[in-house]
Specification:
hpI Integrase, Chain A, 48% helix, globular
Amino acid sequence: MQWSPVFECSIGPDGEKTYRVGHELVDEFLEFASVRCRPSTVRAYAHDLKVFFTFVDKQPAEVTPKDVLAFIVGQQRSGRSVGNVVPISDATSGLSAATVKRRLAAVSSLFGYLVLRGDAGVTANPVPRGMPTRRSRHRGQRGVPLIKGVRRLPRILTADEVELLLSSFRTDRDRAMAQAMLLGGLRRGEVLGLRLEDLRVGERQLFIAEGKGGHQRQVPISPTFFSVVADYLNAERPADAETDQVFVVLKGPRRGQPLSVDGLDEVFSAARARAGLTHGTCHELRHTCFTRLKEAGMAIEAIQAMAGHRSIASTRIYLHLGGDWLANEYRRAAEAIDAQANVGVAS
């Protein structure tokens, strides 16, 4: 093997995490990505690139489209877990299509960076844009995707499950974080990124300084959230905390420091176990929020703005999560058709 890919994470004095894979060019790409992407994205890049180069066993400049296609086949045929990702049965015996697509995106981003640099011996991105078809060849289009994705409806929590989960949290801090997702639809990273100045109590809104893709937005949220977060700030948050992050560690050597993603995940995992729930992730709480808002009659365009979706296509999925929406729309249209058909018919 020409080099041995690794997955390393080091923590600096300021708590900032740096990820390394063990190759100069790849590590420089991760450093570049760290100033324009969220830490979770850089971590995923490092993990996925480690998996890719372990498979292809080549220097970056030696990778060809054939290697990439072989990697796709290998991932989709893999019958065992790779890293911290487990295989699922979804038209293949290997990893899910979403996981393989994410790994390809990481590889494509790396080689796009290397091509742009111009000094890495890489002149073209080896990740194909798609499988060409007869029509796409003549029109210069992308063709069919390399990986056929399966778009699934996300799971949501019932009202009883929401009540069970909220009652299983042991602190107002944890309940406030859950309510930010359930009542405001915030992402996990957006909850952890809230600063004290982002709590717009008078306006009953939250300011999201760094949403997905770096986009900012203001999110209206129920007074219930502000009531719980006020109890947390008054009784639980250490008075000597030096950070302006809203949610901090309450005990131990990191007391008063910003709560980490791992810390939040640990809190929610323990709460789900106490509640006896087999699901209820942070993203499912976000999905639950927007599904309930749609069921209550909120316009899909308003939900798009609240969710921070750049495309309305990402928001339309909530039309299908409410159990009665499609049936009610069909019933309304069918009644109109029947009424038109019966015009002029003697009773």
